[in-house]
Amino acid sequence: MVERIYRVLMVCSHPVQYVAPLLRLMTQQAQLDLHVAYCSLQGAETGVDPEFGVAVQWDIPLLEGYSWEYVPNRSKHPSLGKFWGLVNLGLWRLIHTGKFDAVIVYTGYTYASFWIAAAAAKTSRTPLLFNTDATSLDVRSKGSSWKLRLKQWILPRIFSLADVAISTSAAGSEFLRSLGVPPQRIVMTPFVVDNDWWTAQAALVDRAAIRHQWGIPADALVVLFCAKLQPWKRPADVLSAFAQAQLPYAYLVFAGEGPLKLELMAAAESLRIADRVKFLGFVNQSQLPATYRSADLLVLPSGYDPCPVVVCEAMLCGCPVVLSDEIRGRFDIVQSGYTGYIYPCGDVDALAAILQEALSDRDRLQTLSQNAVKRMETWSPRDNAAAILQAVHTAVRLGKKHT
Predict the structure, then answer these.
(1) How far is CA 69 from CA 60, 103, 368, 385, in A?
(2) pTM, rounded to two decimals
(3) 317 and which of 134, 175, 292, 344 could share a cystine (Cβ 3.0–4.6 Å)?
(4) Is the Cβ–Cβ distance between 272 and 385 less than 8 Å?
């Protein structure tokens, strides 16, 4: 029996460093004829990231190994993060004339281009898929009650448009069900990174040499915060917990840029731990394996962070992870006491206690590290590609009924 080949258009906002390897792998799927439409080339081209606050161009290939095209952005003020920042009118013609079996939209519904692509798919009777990494109705700005009320009303209506809604975690699937999306229209595709690349790069790292560059003793213990220094990432919680834990043999490393950097540096001085707190600034993709591999524990204390890829990256490099309980999208792989720890968001005392416990036993840290690497064997790009194929198959099967 000949297996059907699906011609699929994937609409993406811009090239992303951890998505490009997945696109290359999907291209290798015998049943997928994949074509990618980009609404912006930010990331592949140098530009200022407003959250990092610095010019960013990723130092790994983002546009190689798969079929893609740039759809011109007709926005008067082109940008990411704003509804009218992406207005790619050419998506309408591309979808109507491309004879695609399915359209997968990864721009997010907060862009005008999402609605252009969705309308084109519906009017051309092409099965429509789109994803969410959300696990709740929470908003990044906790004081924005109007946003919460709007999401409660509008999200069920938005996801009713999808022939298949793609979640990135078990918690995400549960969230979609809570919005009224029928279980048969939900496919969970693990939100992953390029496991083989991260594992291979981690194996090449000379921890002692990296520690020397950081000005940290080779035998010290290192706690890592790797994210943008933004309020919702709560980097100050890590700093406070580290100071409270009173770990004279340990260091805290911040990898990332953002508006809180000077405030954090001043806080480290006032807490009298500045000599054991290092700020690396922006770390590009090729240098991240060395960063994770040279740390002993990654802490991610975010109050809003649905499904961060840094968790996968760190675990593949043998760095166990401490998560706040607001990061439900990573509960699939971070198991407290096995591959890391989970604590109540904002509870600095609890975080300090975890740091004391984890860093007091090097054998336990080594076991956590080994368990983290082992867990990632079944949370891989191959699992993601297989799930995408299943999502397309399901959408094609259900699409006519849904339209």
Answers:
(1) 19, 15, 43, 21
(2) 0.88
(3) 292
(4) no
